[in-house]
Amino acid sequence: FFKKTSDLFCTAFLEITTPEPPEEYAYPDYRGKGCVDESGFVYAIGEKFTPGPSACPCLCTDEGPLCIQPECPRLHPRCIHVDTSQCCPQCKERKNYCEFRGKIYQTLEEFMVSPCERCRCEANGEVLCTVSACPQTECVDPVYEPDQCCPICKNGPNCFAETTVIPAGREVKTDECTICHCTYEEGTWRIERQAMCTRHECKQI
């Protein structure tokens, strides 16, 4: 009778002093035998598996799961909502507008910021602007209008005869012996600023 009591006492003592398993091994300890995912499914050593919905793929080894973060695609620079519930984060929403000089423009929208400057909201969120290239004027006295980018010839085509501005399209006598005209070439007035002048013999008074 006393012997049986002693055996029971020793058994109870051993059960009390046995350490609790660490929290990370709440499932049965399969180290050296296999690996367990979050749902309790067991994988053999050498198998590839995904521990959980948001985890990256792992390889089951005799030391436990060997997990390596893969090279994930870069997120779009305009991403404003990122989903991190998977191994690689994914962009769920992108910004579809540009901010420029305090104003909002939609993607691919074109707009003028000045009479000479045209801009466009690009898909990457940047604003690209180009300045209008003005053609050479057909006059030597162009003027700028407030709402126009390029200067205009209000007085029509003209050129210089020395220091005098003469109209294009007709010969102009600048003095008693000299006749000048602006040069017309290739369908336009070729403005070299100075007129072509011919000096004739004339009577000296």
UniProtKB/TrEMBL annotation:
Q: List the PANTHER family.
A: BRORIN, BRORIN FAMILY MEMBER
Q: What is its main location?
A: secreted
Q: Which domain of life is it from?
A: Eukaryota
This protein's record includes keyword Secreted? yes
Q: Which SUPFAM superfamilies match?
A: FnI-like domain (SSF57603)
List, alphabetically, the Pfam families matched.
VWC2L_1st, VWC2L_2nd, VWC2L_C
Is Secreted among the key words of this record? yes
One GO location term (cellular component): synapse
- Cellular localisation: Secreted; Synapse
Q: Know the name of this protein?
A: von Willebrand factor C domain containing 2
By its UniProt entry, which PROSITE patterns does this protein fall under?
Answer: VWFC_1, VWFC_2
Keyword terms of this UniProt record: Repeat, Secreted, Signal, Synapse
Domain named VWFC is located at 96-154
The UniProt entry's GO biological process terms, in alphabetical order, are: negative regulation of BMP signaling pathway
Q: Which InterPro entries match?
A: VWC2/VWC2L, VWC2L_C, VWC2L_N, VWF_dom
* Organism the protein comes from: Chelydra serpentina
